[in-house]
Write a structure and sequence with these properties.
394 residues; alpha/beta; four-stranded antiparallel beta sheet; globular
Length: 394
């Protein structure tokens, strides 16, 4: 007879004691519970190109179902290299400078683990994507939050300069920016490069929305700016670009010495990534039209959604890129105007049947600006249903 399990004498220590259920899970669960239109979590509700599915199916049928090389399928790494040099003018060698990852979030965590030591400081620009700070804390490094300029969400270079010190090891950059939908200009990126030039600070550039920029803007990658490319890792995501977020396939490009350290960690926390999907993506990337046309595709959705929102009391903030639209509810006249952002999103979900995300959730200190974020990566019918419900705000 087995002896009974001995109970724990004390609570299990947590690596992330301040972390609970994310706001994305909370709002998506509430949307499902109430039957609300879910414009909270950032994923499309439409399918990908059937040709991409066929490419993966053909790879499976051809027998590509065992482990691929640890850094990724050679054909896919070469296709990524060719794309980057075509778009951004820098050639990353497929053999030594590109690694395929299990999505961008894994790439970011692996990069932080590879590039930092316990006690190093890592600058993040608030508001920021919710995985950044937990990844830094799990690595034993110290997050240093530097707010973007309130209202415009542009970089505050004076604040950045003040945050740099001898302990600063890494800076996380995100453009196009989630959640605020701002896009860094080439001038701003060069100003950052100039600021970092006298230092040994490395850069980790999250560019997963690189193909979603609007109104004639261009996405300027850290790969395009020599002073950043030489000290940086660039992360992107096939899930965002090809409407397959559930596939969790992304990549990292970096100079060989940085990539060597990245792969040391990558081989032990993931080792490698889904083989047939890599082959399918490699074949699909031979045609650049799907990603070259993506900005126009999403700008049509942005414009139609903005036109509908303009008929409500919600005030639109600029949307330069990504598939997110931030709005202010400060001009509402009812009692809901005085709610905090999280409570307002709950009210909006329960009372009007539309789920959104509070921008305060992306701030370390929960900064409140009466601003919420909608995702417009949805079918026209989904967006129209949401707009009909939001019209009741009038």
């Amino acid at each position: 007879m087995n002896a009974p399990c001995k109970p724990l004498l004390s609570p299990l220590p947590s690596r992330l004691p301040e972390v609970g259920t994310t706001i994305f899970s909370t709002m998506s669960a509430l949307a499902a519970q109430t039957g609300a239109v879910n414009l909270g979590q950032g994923f499309p509700d439409f399918g990908c190109d059937p040709a991409l599915i066929r490419g993966v199916t053909q790879a499976m049928e051809a027998g590509w179902n065992q482990y691929p090389p640890m850094p990724g399928v050679a054909a896919l790494r070469q296709a990524i290299s060719d794309k980057i040099v075509h778009l951004h003018g820098r050639r990353y060698e497929a053999e030594t400078e590109i690694t395929v990852t299990a999505g961008a979030t894994q790439a970011l965590l692996t990069a932080i683990l590879a590039l930092t030591q316990p006690g190093d400081e890592v600058i993040v620009l608030d508001p920021c994507y919710d995985s950044y700070v937990p990844a830094i804390e799990m690595s034993g490094a110290v997050p240093v939050r530097v707010p973007l300029t309130r209202g415009s969400f542009r970089p505050d270079f004076a604040a950045l300069a003040a945050a740099l010190d001898p302990k600063t090891r890494l800076l996380l950059l995100n453009t196009p920016h989630n959640p605020t939908a701002t896009v860094w200009t080439e001038q701003e990126l060069q100003q950052l490069a100039d600021l970092l030039a006298p230092t040994d600070v490395l850069v980790l550039s999250d560019e997963v929305y690189e193909h979603m920029v609007y109104d004639g803007r261009m996405h300027v990658s850290a790969a395009h700016v020599p002073g950043l490319a030489e000290r940086g890792m660039v992360v992107s995501s096939f899930g965002k670009t090809y409407h397959v977020t559930g596939w969790k396939v992304g990549y990292v490009a970096a100079p060989a010495p940085l990539m060597q350290e990245f792969r040391k960690v990558h081989q032990f926390n993931v080792f490698t990534v889904n083989t047939p999907m890599q082959h399918g993506l490699a074949a699909y990337m031979q045609n650049p039209a799907p990603y070259m046309d993506l900005s126009a595709f999403y700008q049509r959705k942005r414009d139609a959604f903005a036109q509908g929102l303009a008929r409500t009391p919600l005030r639109l903030l600029p949307c330069e890129g990504t598939y997110f639209q931030c709005v202010s509810y400060a001009d509402l006249r009812g009692p809901e105007r005085d709610l905090g952002e999280a409570d307002f999103c709950i009210w909006l979900t329960r009372e009007l049947g539309v789920a959104a995300i509070p921008v305060a959730a992306f701030y370390g200190d929960g900064t409140e600006q009466k601003t919420i974020r909608f995702c417009f990566a949805k079918q026209e019918a989904t967006l129209q249903a949401a707009l009909e419900r939001l019209a009741r705000l009038g």
